[in-house]
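We examine the record.

___
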Amino acid sequence: MAIFLSHSTAAECWKSGRFDALLGGPSIAPWHRPAGAADVERFATALAMDRLDIACAEAGAFAGSRAEAPRACKPFAGEVRRLREGVLAFASEPLHLLVPHKNAVNSLKSTRCHVRSAPLSCGSFVRVGDDLLLGSPELCFAQMAASLPFVSLVKLGTELCSLYTLQPNGSAGYERVLPPTTPRALEAYLGRCAGMRGLADARKAACLVAASSGSPMETALALILGLPLRLGGYGLPRPILNHRIDALQSGPNAMERRYYLCDLYWPEARVALEYDSDLEHTGPSRIANDARRRNDLTSLSVTTITATRDQVMDGRGLDRLAHQVARALGARIRSKRGWSTRARGELFRSLVAS
């Protein structure tokens, strides 16, 4: 029988980066890799849209199209044990599985079965191997809407659309070329769904998901600055993450770099927010090049604001940074309608935590 991984187990799989190769697409040579949010999102969206047209035959179990008894779809202890010792050795317990009937639910402490008897849209699963299917990034986002707080759901969506990986133990990696999905693909999939708990929240959250984040801190900053006041954010215009700005290549002001990637960028105001961390980017060499990068960006009429971990992890420091960004954008933060500095700081720290 087929085993269907779902909910938080599927989310861990996609965030970990261990299953990215299943998403299709050609092998990309380093010199041809997409650089900048626009290229990344265009490439990743094309792959995701193609994948959303694929239906796995085993998914017919959720349409009631199989003649066999529901118990034939019941995950057995031996199968679960092999998964825990193999491809899912990294995953948290319990494993979350999707089954087509209540009679297929097992009583194993190491699993939690979710019943889904209605049909699921194309693109709901990605094949891992024989008789093992993984809920797609889009499906697990829709499923988690029923249990996650709204802001946590937006964060999950941003992580599924990010260029970094996260392991269940909290460690992060920064070598991902393309994200598992994109906001456009999430919205397209959710538009096809029906009869799922939390679907309305999932559709609202997808509209707030940020694409192409390069680190957990970039995700937290983008959300806290751009979320509406009622959700605990500062209500500023939403930035583009890892926006590409081409450098000058000729003339007396020619620059060494072909382009720069800005952590958070507001194109209309030409304002960039850079987060300084030798851990979350490329090490001490990145720090050594910061001054040159800021000078080059200034030459390109880009105003650069720098944030540090010590600054943003303090509620008052975060508040000062947000108002500095607001002034640069010519925007206004309506503090009286938002959360307190302390509450917003606590929200931000929860966004940083994996």
Observations:
- The chain has a mean pLDDT of 89.
- The first strand starts at residue 3 and ends at 5.
